[in-house]
Amino acid sequence: MRTLLFLLRKEFKQIFRNKALLPLIFFAPVMQLIILPLAADFEVKNINISYVDHDHSTLSQQLFHKLISSGYFRAVGYGSSYSQALQQIEEEKADIILEIPAGFERNLVRENQQELFIAINAINGVKAGLGGAYVGQIINDFNQEVRLKWTSGAANIQTQQIEVTSTYWFNPHLNYQIFMVPAILVILVTMICAYMCALNIVKEKEVGTIEQINVTPIKKYQFILGKLIPFWLIGIFIFTVGLFGIARFIYGIVPIGNILLLYAFLAIYLIALLGMGLLISTTANTQQQAMSVAFFFIMIFMLMSGLFTSIDSMPDWAKVIAYCSPVTYFIDVMRMLVLKGSGLMDIRWHFVIMFIFAIVLNTWALVKYKKTS
């Protein structure tokens, strides 16, 4: 125990003496957690629409104003030339063209039907799909309003319709920041702890102090614990500042679930994550190698952990990779505990899987580290 305390004192001194490292550990995650959720918004707004009106009637103008007043569209053209509108799409000035044919109002009144033409720039598939859906929904609403107006004015005909009312649980206002902040906090803690821990032993190799440690009577598990515990405590500190500081006072996110349960899972997750960092550190010979390997895994963890895209929508081979990542389970647990208030029975298998990650990665790192006396 005394030997371990000396090692911990040495590690903390090395960390706090490095003036360039301290801002990366403590200041960078705070700024990133403040800025990133403001940009991580899945809702597509400010879609540029070019409105081609060959009819210039009252109804065509009402439809145009309904589109613009929805808040999703921004008019970049209003004219009667389709070729000019198409040129705006080619120049990336417009995303959607809505063409109103001549006789739009007359045909709608006399024949009760009229076709419209919509052209969408589909280079950005997400923006194109959502933009087209928005336009279709607004046109359907406009068509329903016109029909109700005509039927109520013509006769006492009661139009029966089904009204759908949606109730959004756990995020009633569909605020994407509430959905993204817990997941981004997981990624930031992962990046800081994995990178710093991966560079730890490699730095000892590069400066030559690893040979001095190897000839001492320090046991392998003491050396590994001395490298793991400081960053385990730093990870808990960063997580606490992010959850109870930034998430609460800037974004108004208050955890609903059991805090002790959340920290219990965090403790096991950090052990597994730091075990991976130590494994990379014992394998690499230079800091550049360690950074490259850590960057490779962090990118996979970020893109295939359910942070930006749902795992359920991935192909089967991608789901296998996603469920081999500890980050996937922690993001899921964060959203379940912080937003839904889930209990231990809901995340019991997450605990089991994270225990397996922690045992396998740390045992592997312990075996991989070769100490010569």
How would you sum up this structure, described in words?
The chain crosses the membrane at residues 21-40, 178-202, 229-254, 260-280, 292-311, 349-367. Its main location: membrane. GO terms for molecular function: ABC-type transporter activity. The protein is 66% helix and 6% strand. The protein is built from 14 helices and four strands. The longest helix has 32 residues, at 176-207. It is α/β, with parallel strands linked by helices and 373 residues long. The protein has helices at 2-17, 21-39, 58-69, 82-90, 104-110, 125-154, 176-207, 209-214, 220-249, 259-283, 287-303, 316-322, 326-340, 348-368, and strands at residues 47-53, 73-79, 96-100, 117-120. It folds into two domains: 2-40 and 176-368, no CATH class; 47-154, abc type-2 transporter like domain (abc type-2 transporter like fold, 3-Layer(aba) Sandwich), CATH 3.40.1710. The chain has a four-stranded mixed sheet with strand order 2-1-3-4, with helices on both faces. Helix 10 (259-283) runs antiparallel to helix 13.
Low-confidence stretches: none
Structurally, the number of domains stands at 2
Distance between the termini: 21 Å
Helical content class: 55-70%
Strand content: 5-15%
Main attributes of the structure:
alpha/beta, 2 domains, 14 helices, ABC transporter permease subunit
Task: Provide a compact summary of the structure.
It contains 14 helices and four strands. The chain is an alpha/beta fold and 373 residues long.
